[in-house]
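Re: that chain you flagged

S.,

Sorry for the slow reply, it's been a week of failed gels. I finally had a moment to sit down with the sequence you sent. For the record, here it is as I used it:
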Amino acid sequence: MSIIIVDLAAGTTISPSDADDITKAAADAGVTAIRVLDGAPGQTLDASVIAFEGDYYRVAGPLDGPASPQGGPLLIADDVDTLGWDVIARNADVVVIDRKAVPTADTDLSAALARAGRPRESVALVVRVDVTEPEAVAATLPALVAEHGLDGVELVAAGGKDDVLALIAEVVPALLPSTDATLRSAFSLTPSA
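Prediction finished late last night. Pasting the structure tokens below so you have them in one place:
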């Protein structure tokens, strides 16, 4: 178990923003418990100050659970046209591209990652494939992935339940299975620090 203690100098106060920064940094570092001493020996920071509220989740109080085995959540970018390769290279763990972008995507991503000082292996490249003809997709998908340096596929069924079942029965068996414990390890990404 990884525990940190932050001991502030006497009379020093901590703002909610600073507490958020400490909480985020601790979680990123795999810390499973945090105790902040607020200026006086033995005085613990009010847990309600350690808080974060984002668009999709919120944290209130101390970190009281184990760190995720994969580190932080995967950051997935799915609109290269809006974000641009350089923003994706600096921030994302996974980028999802449309099939039309496949021919140049690996080269574009690699160049942006080099500018950002990150290795190509640090971002998974995933193609989104609309599956209207499962048999045809199953026959061509493995070669598409291998030929263009893709790390995975996002399969989009054409319609309802029957189309999803056909996709599962006909396309998924053509893909290499992953037995990894986390999505991060399935993409061969290192755990976030």
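What I noticed first: The CA atoms of residues 78 and 96 lie 5 Å apart.

Talk soon,
D.
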